[in-house]
Amino acid sequence: MADTALKSTAMKSVGGLLARQGILVAFVVFMVGFALWNPRFIDIDNVFGVIRSSAILGVMALGVTFVVIGGNLDLSVGSMLSFSAIVVLDLHENPAFGPALAIPAMYAMTLALGALNGFLIGYLRLNSLIVTLGMLSAIHGLTLTYSGGQNMDIANQSETWFGVFGRGSALGIPVPVLIFAGLAALLGMILAKTPFGRKVYAVGGNGTAATFSGIPRARVVFATYLISAFCVATAGLIQASRTMGAQNTVGQGLELEVLAAVILGGASLLGGSGTIFKTVIGVLILGFIQNGLLLAGLEFYVQFVVTWIIIILAVWLDIATKRGKLWSPIA
């Protein structure tokens, strides 16, 4: 009898762990599977290479996590990345600015776009899907207008310190990885440990109840879009610094990958749930899946299909562990 009770308690403990960390379990399973398939997968240079290449997507996903937890969407981040990269490169080459002034100017302009999103969605209560979908096209047009349809490049790359953000390293760790990790730690603490973070969860969980509780819903939503824009500006800085140039469509399509990483990390499209830590895991899953398939020698078009299948399996595992069943109880 005691043994049965002990086994039952142990199973409940394991089940509880899986329910809380299902996506982390999926990540470990994928890592072990790919490592057994190809030992090069866990080589330290390969691991840092994957994290470094995922940093741009990851930094953007950190900001979008706030927006999604707050009960909204941001589909403008891809176009906003293109705008940020083009602007900082253009101002870098302007003798009146240079890198020291180009960076804060780019942040200010990108934050203005985020503020516009926040105003329309937070204060005017417009639908976030419609607004940010429209902003996607508007910002793309703004980028083409600003650049005259031309790509941007830094002429004298050896004479500027601008490359440190995308190409530099500190203590053997690539700077993009350090930026990603530092921003994740900061935003994770803000979301989990501050009154503002609790307000974001409250607004996303039930905006009406949050308003009646005295939480300034419009202000919170506005702030989430500012955070998203700040993260996009940071990603644009890394992108421009890494390549020392950019096409005016460099961010095209990234909004869907960013949203996939956030949802893969367990954030609900209905709002009110999600964490920065799990978003980081979602980003890494996407990055390591693509890297593992590349090392396996699969063609790029096959990688798209396999990646989709693995994402579906990962999300299914996460949901199944939370409800304790592989199939929906309604089915």
UniProtKB/TrEMBL annotation:
The chain crosses the membrane at residues 17-37, 49-69, 104-123, 129-149, 170-192, 220-238, 258-288, 300-319. It is a multi-pass membrane protein. It comes from the Bacteria. GO terms for molecular function: transmembrane transporter activity. GO terms for cellular component: plasma membrane. Keywords: Cell inner membrane, Cell membrane, Membrane, Transmembrane, Transmembrane helix, Transport. The keyword Cell inner membrane applies. It is found in: Cell membrane. Pfam families: BPD_transp_2. PANTHER family: ABC TRANSPORTER PERMEASE PROTEIN YPHD-RELATED, ABC TRANSPORTER PERMEASE PROTEIN YPHD-RELATED-RELATED. This is ABC transporter permease. It comes from Rhodosalinus sediminis. The lineage of its organism: Bacteria, Pseudomonadati, Pseudomonadota, Alphaproteobacteria, Rhodobacterales.
